Each structure stands twice: as structure tokens, then as C-alpha cells.
Automatic annotation (TrEMBL):
GO cellular component terms, semicolon-separated: membrane
Record-given protein name: Major facilitator superfamily domain, general substrate transporter
Family matches, as Pfam families: MFS_1 (PF07690)
Topology of this chain in the membrane: Multi-pass membrane protein
Transmembrane feature ranges: 72-91, 139-161, 173-194, 200-218, 239-258, 270-290, 349-376, 396-413, 442-461, 500-522, 534-558
């Protein structure tokens, strides 16, 4: 079926209202090639433009006051607070664990060796005695266990929360994703305030709570799902870019803010109270203030569809083995290789290639950052002030790219050309999910290339200035993560956004577990002989991601309503045709017709 989104009268003008053809439209109403315009369930003739300008994603919210209409801007402030809380406790929590483990170690040694004299250990202060190799080993092992618990559980929880959000809305599950962090901070405060009563190993329980609710991974993918729901495909990459800008702002400012709060208050525990308040604000604001991006109508439709799919799956079960397969913890990844009606081999290859690119981009950002800082301090002799300025500069430049340069690229290379075509042809293009366009693919490739050049620059930099310049080059790689995740949502139906992004979140969580072990292990093995080996490996990883980007085929997407549209073809076998500005009968552009 072909449908015009026409802002004028095609193939002849209607002279008066008597020529206006109106009907009670249904899903089977044909759109004739006589100036008919379709806007969701409204069929008119005469070129009256729909309120959503060719995109019906927010049609259910039309007529509501602004505070009940979803928008990505609802999320920017609370998500910034969420990431600030996450970033502000990274270093203080490490120092707290170091102090608690050190205190516990020397307390146990005092029982074994009564003659041992150790200076009192002040939590959060400089304790030279804690530089003991055995203490460092125990801290590293304990941190590994905490990260493993959080990463593994969030890898299981995040895709399930994403799938649930398709049926029950985003905002309450987004609030739930922060509840685990809230419980974790309460346990952290108790362990810091009452170390004799609450053993430091209770912090593992906090990591379990955090992982069970999806942790930072679930918060990230649910936020992107919300942005995808309320943003047209042509502007979706920019909206997700805003989310990523908030992420990097929060991580950068959070680390500086955490250090300043500890310095001003003289107490390491104070930052955890601030983090607790930030989590509480985020939960309350998201759960009770912002409007959900999925209307009740869409939620109920998704639940009904899920019930039918579950019934079909139960009918196909022939043995206990098939039931076990469905409960496989990695079964969430199957959505990245969809089969059945409306799918294709190119769609599957696109989704896998995009998921691989995103896993490499986000995984290295989370896992390799610590190694880069260790390398800079080792090679250039940087201390905490220099390291903090380096991290802040790189993060803020990435924010400038995402919030300043990226919207300009989208405006000049996508929005303006589309507006020009619309003016020249009189046809309003259908702003719908149609897969990656050429601009998306080239932005992704350029972003990956900038990462490769940046890591090559790290490899050859022997002075701070070229090293910082290389970091600024990798900042353009932030375009890659925003683009890859927005393009994924343009490949799939709206009722599968949470599920697919949840599967990608699962990959990110697994990399969060495996990445630090691999990168830290490589750095530890090569720091004595060739410390730049880590950058060579990272450049190789991004080169592989760049190769994956050449697999992506433009304008491929999941045609979920493919069969229904075929059934609605006219009986005579002909279809209406989009007419160009000169009446040539040819479509004005690929995105001006709907198949």
C-alpha cells in the first residue's frame, strides 16, 4: 500500500466543499491519489496538515496540557541528577572500601600478633599503612566481587525491565531502576557510620540490590526508550545525544562535586547522604511527576499482543527442553536476530552490527577509562588535580559535540533538506521508522574513525599536549553511541523498543563485567614492557566496529504490519502513486511514500 502525506492537492484541485470526500476512516480505508492525506486515523482531502507533521507517535496525547505530554526534556534534569549521583561516589566509595578493608585487616592482624602496633585508621583520610600489598590485593578482589554481582544481575534484569516497559510504561520501571541504588547507598552509609556493627562485606548486598533492579544499565536503556517514544525518527539521534550529554556531564561534574563536598565537610560519608538524596529525588520525580511516554492505549495493545504471542509459544512447546530454552538467561538476545513476518536477513545483520558497535563504544567507555587514567598518571606523573582536569575537559568537550555540533549536523543535513523537498513537492513525508538513512551510517562511521585516530594518538603521544588532543579527538566518538542506539529504534516497531534496547543493555552489562578484567589484565601484563599495548588493542576493537558499520544496509526495518497492508490493496491490483511536483508520477523521495 502506498500512502501520501500531502500538504497540497494532488492531481487536480477540489473546487469547493462539495468535492470534499469524507468518511468514517478505519484501518482498511483506501487512500486515493486525489489529494487525500492520511494522518493516523484521520483521512482528509484538501491538504489540511496533521498536527504532528507526518509523525503520529504522540497522537494519543494531542489536546492534553503540556504537563501531561511526554517530551525528552522532561528527563534531562532528573537524569542529570541520576548521573551526578552515580559519578560523585565512584572515587569516595573506592576510598571508603579501602579504609574499611584496611581497618578490618589490621584488626585481624592485631588479634594474631598482639605486639603489632598500627596507627589508627581514619576513614577517608590519607592512611600510609593502607598501602600494604595485602590490603591492596583484598580491596581489588572485593571490588571485583561487587562489580561482578552488579554486572551479572543487571545483565539479567535490564532486558526484562526493558521488555516489561513496552507493556507497562517507562517511568515507574525507570524509578524502580534507581531503587536498588538507593538501598545500596543506605547500606554504604550504615557500613561507614557503624563499621564495628555492620561489616564491610554487607556492601556486597548493596551491589546485589543494585543489580537486581538493573543498576545504571537499566536506567540508561529505559531513558533512551522514553526518548525514542516521544521523538520523531528524524530527530531521535539528537534526543538520545542529549541523554548521552547528560550522562557525560553527570560523570564529569559528579567526580569534581564529590571531591569538593568531601573537602568542604571533612567527612567522606557526607557525599553518600547527597547521593541518597539524589536517588530519592529521581525516584519521586520520575514516578509521580513526568508523564509516561506510552499511552494507556499502547500499553494495553502491547499487553494483548504479548498474551497472544505467549499463547502461540505455549502451543508450540513439545517438550521440557523447549521450555528450558525459553528460560535461558541469554534468550533476551534473540530479539536481535528476529524471524518471522516482516523480518529479513538484512534486518538481522543490521541489528547485530549495530549492537556490536554499541557494545564496543559503550563497553570501552565504561571499562577502559580507568586504565587510561592509570596510564596518564604513570607516564606523565599526573596527580589527582591534573587527572580531574583531564577527565573534566574530555567529558565537557564530548558534551559540546553532543549538544552543540550534533544538532547542527542533523539540522543542516537532514531537517533542512527534508523541508526543502516538502516545499518543492507539496508532499509531507511520512516521518516513520524506516531504518538507518545514509546520514546515520556516515555519522556512525566518522565517529568510529575518530575513536580509532584518538587511540592511535594515545599510542604515539609522549607528552601531555598530544595526549589531551587525542582525548578530544575521541570525544567525537560520542556521536557513535547516540547514533547507533537511535538507529536501532528506527529498525523496529514501537512496541519492541524497550525489549531491543534491553538486549543491548544486557550486552553493555556483560562488557561491564568482562571489560575491566580484560583491560586491566592486559595493562598489568604489558605496563613493564610496552604500556601503550592497551591503546593498540582498543584501536583494533574500534577498527572491527568500523568494519561492522559497513555491513549496515540503509532503509531496512521490521515491517510488522506487512501482511495487513497487503490485504488492504485495491481489488483491481493498482495502487495510488505519489506525484512529483511536475506531475510526473514519480515519487519525490524515498521517505515520501509508505510501503
Amino acid at each position: 500500500m502506498v500512502a501520501l502525506r500531502d500538504g497540497s492537492k494532488a492531481q487536480g484541485e477540489l473546487e469547493d466543499d462539495s468535492d470534499l470526500i469524507t468518511a468514517d476512516p478505519t484501518e482498511t480505508t483506501h487512500l486515493l491519489a486525489t489529494g487525500v492525506e492520511e494522518n493516523d486515523n484521520i483521512v482528509t482531502a484538501g491538504g489540511v496538515k496533521g498536527t504532528n507533521g507526518g509523525w503520529d507517535g504522540l497522537a494519543d496525547f494531542e489536546g492534553l496540557p503540556w504537563w501531561r505530554r511526554p517530551s525528552v526534556f522532561w528527563l534531562l534534569a532528573p537524569y542529570s541528577v541520576f548521573t551526578l549521583a552515580f559519578g560523585s561516589v565512584i572515587v569516595p566509595k573506592l576510598n571508603l572500601i579501602l579504609g574499611l578493608v584496611c581497618q578490618h585487616y589490621f584488626a585481624s592482624q592485631s588479634h594474631l600478633h598482639p605486639d603489632l602496633r598500627v596507627n589508627p585508621i581514619n576513614i577517608g583520610a590519607d592512611n600510609p599503612q593502607c598501602r600494604n600489598p595485602e590490603v591492596q590485593k583484598r580491596v581489588a578482589t572485593f571490588m571485583l566481587v561487587m562489580n561482578f554481582c552488579t554486572g551479572l544481575l543487571s545483565a539479567y534484569a535490564a532486558p526484562r525491565l526493558g521488555h516489561l516497559s513496552d507493556r507497562y510504561g517507562r517511568r515507574r520501571l525507570l524509578a524502580l531502576a534507581s531503587c536498588g541504588g538507593l538501598l545500596g547507598e543506605i547500606i554504604t552509609i550504615l557500613a561507614a557510620k557503624f563499621p564495628e556493627t555492620v561489616d564491610y562485606r554487607w556492601l556486597i548486598l548493596g551491589s546485589i540490590f543494585d543489580g537486581m533492579t538493573g543498576s545504571f544499565t537499566a536506567g540508561n536503556i529505559l531513558t533512551q526508550s522514553y526518548a525514542s517514544d516521544c521523538t520523531p525518527p528524524s530527530r531521535r539521534a539528537v534526543a538520545i545525544g542529549y541523554i548521552h550529554a547528560c550522562l557525560f556531564t553527570g560523570l564529569a561534574v559528579g567526580q569534581l562535586l564529590g571531591g569538593e563536598i568531601v573537602r568542604l565537610t571533612g567527612s567522606l560519608v557526607s557525599i553518600f547522604y547527597v547521593c541518597l538524596a539524589a536517588h530519592s529525588f529521581f525516584i519521586v520525580f520520575v514516578a509521580f511527576v513526568i508523564p509516561d511516554s506510552l499511552s494507556k492505549k499502547k500499553q494495553l495493545a502491547a499487553r494483548e499482543k504479548h498474551r497472544k504471542e505467549e499463547g502461540e509459544r505455549r502451543a508450540r512447546r513439545t517438550s521440557w527442553f523447549s521450555s528450558v530454552q525459553e528460560r535461558n538467561p541469554f534468550s533476551s538476545l534473540s530479539v536481535l536476530w528476529p524471524r518471522g513476518r516482516g523480518t529479513s536477513a538484512r534486518l538481522r545483520l543490521n541489528l547485530v552490527a549495530l549492537a556490536t558497535c554499541d557494545m564496543i563504544i559503550m563497553g570501552t567507555a565504561m571499562a577502559a577509562g580507568q586504565v587510561i587514567i592509570l596510564y596518564a598518571e604513570y607516564v606523565f606523573g599526573w596527580q589527582t588535580p591534573e587527572t580531574s582536569r583531564f577527565v573534566a575537559a574530555a567529558s565537557f568537550f564530548r558534551v559540546i559535540v553532543l549538544m552543540g555540533i550534533f544538532p547542527l549536523i542533523n539540522y543542516f543535513f537532514r531537517i533542512r533538506p527534508a523541508a526543502k523537498r516538502r516545499r518543492e513537492s507539496g508532499i509531507t513525508p511520512v516521518d516513520k521508522n524506516s531504518g538507518a538513512d545514509h546520514l546515520d551510517i556516515w555519522i556512525l562511521r566518522i565517529a568510529l574513525l575518530s575513536d580509532i585516530l584518538g587511540y592511535i594518538g594515545y599510542t604515539f603521544a609522549r607528552a601531555p599536549v598530544p595526549f589531551v588532543a587525542s582525548a578530544l579527538m575521541t570525544a567525537f566518538g560520542g556521536l557513535g553511541s547516540a547514533t547507533s542506539q537511535s538507529v536501532v529504534t528506527k529498525h523496529i516497531p514501537h512496541d519492541k523498543v524497550g525489549r531491543v534496547l534491553g538486549a543491548i543493555g544486557m550486552l553493555q552489562a556483560l562488557v561491564r563485567v568482562i571489560g575491566p578484567v580484560a583491560f586491566n589484565g592486559l595493562y598489568a601484563a604489558t605496563v613493564g614492557s610496552y604500556p601503550q599495548a592497551i591503546f593498540v588493542a582498543l584501536a583494533g576493537l574500534f577498527s572491527f566496529a568500523l568494519l561492522c558499520s559497513f555491513i549496515i544496509t540503509p532503509f531496512v526495518h521490521w515491517h510488522e504490519d506487512h501482511e495487513e497492508e497487503e490485504e488492504r490493496e485495491p481489488l483491481n491490483g493498482t495502487a495510488p502513486q505519489a506525484v512529483g511536483p511536475a506531475g510526473t508520477g514519480f515519487p519525490c523521495d524515498e521517505d515520501e511514500i509508505r510501503y
